[in-house]
Amino acid sequence: MTNIGILGAGRVGTNLAGKLSAAGHHVTLGSQNPEETATRTIGLAPHVAFADQRTTARTANIVINATPGDSSLDRLTDLRTELAGKILIDVSNATRDAPDGLPGDLCYPGSSLAEKLQAALPDTHVVKTLNTMLFMVMTAPEILTTPPTAFLSGDDQNAKKTVTGLLGDLGWTPDLIEDLGDITTARATEAMILVVPHVLRRHGFQPFAVSLAR
Fold first, then answer.
1. Residue 111 sits in a domain of what CATH number?
2. pTM of the entire structure?
3. Which of 10, 180, 189, 203 has the highest local Cβ count within 10 Å?
4. In the β-sheet with 62-65, what is the strand arrangement from edge to edge?
5. Closest by alpha carbon to 125, among 189, 200, 61?
6. 213 falls within a domain
7. Helix and strand counts by DSSP (H, E) for the chain
């Protein structure tokens, strides 16, 4: 059992919290208003704990960033001390919204949120994954008729090995996981978010993910 902290209590964070707690991990969901989050997500209790984000980061062994990507860098840089020595799994995409509220452009063209986080948190092992799919696929890859791919980017091989194990708890078998290399490779997967709004506008909010076909 691993002590996992999830920063962000939206659809992504709560979805991951439910699946990881069901897999036997001790999960704390960190938000700006823990009491409101506990009330809103009452179905997760008593298996998931609730706390503010600083406490969540400090008490967890592994932290998942599920905060809005356009504000993640500022939020997590402020938690540099709490995140030191830990694995940070970044599943967010940093984008600016188009007029219809869907992703319109990248916040860090020529770079990535994951790279920015790694530079700002040099004592933390940042691993990018699960950012090339809608949130429901993150915890149930089997719902798609075509097997999806979970890409990994990160500088530390041991951290990526640990994250691969957690992906297994979410239903990702080894053949569905593709290690792209160091943290700079995250700019490729983060850029894939620009495909998402076009798919959603044509087909609606249906589960989908990027798949590497061989």
1. 3.40.50.720
2. 0.96
3. 189
4. 48-51, 26-30, 3-7, 62-65, 87-90, 125-128, 150-154, 177-181
5. 61
6. no
7. 10, 10
CB-neighbour burial class of residue 180 (10 A; exposed 0-12, middle 13-18, buried 19+): middle
Joined tokens for residue 201: 């506008």
pLDDT cut 90: percent of the chain above it: 88
Which amino acid would we find at residue 159? A
Number of domains in the chain: 1
Q: How far apart are CA 191 and CA 19, in angstroms?
A: 27
pLDDT digits (tens, 9 = 90+) for 120-162: 999 999 999 999 999 999 999 999 999 999 999 999 999 999 9
- C-alpha span between 105 and 98 (Å, rounded): 8
Segments forming the whole domain that contains residue 163: 3-203
CA distance 125 to 173: 23
State residue 22 phi and psi, 5-degree precision. Answer: -65, -25
CA gap 161, 59 in Å, rounded: 22
Check: CB of residue 48 under 8 Å from CB of residue 56.
Answer: no
**Cα distance between residue 77 and residue 93, in whole Å:** 16
Give the contacts of 46 (CB within 8 A, at least 6 positions apart). Answer: none
Strand 103-106 relative to strand 95-97, pairing = antiparallel
Q: Are strands 26-30 and 48-51 parallel, antiparallel or unpaired?
A: parallel
Whether cis (ω within 30° of 0) applies to the bond prior to 68 is: no
Question: Residue 210 domain-assigned?
Answer: no
The DSSP letter of residue 63 is: E
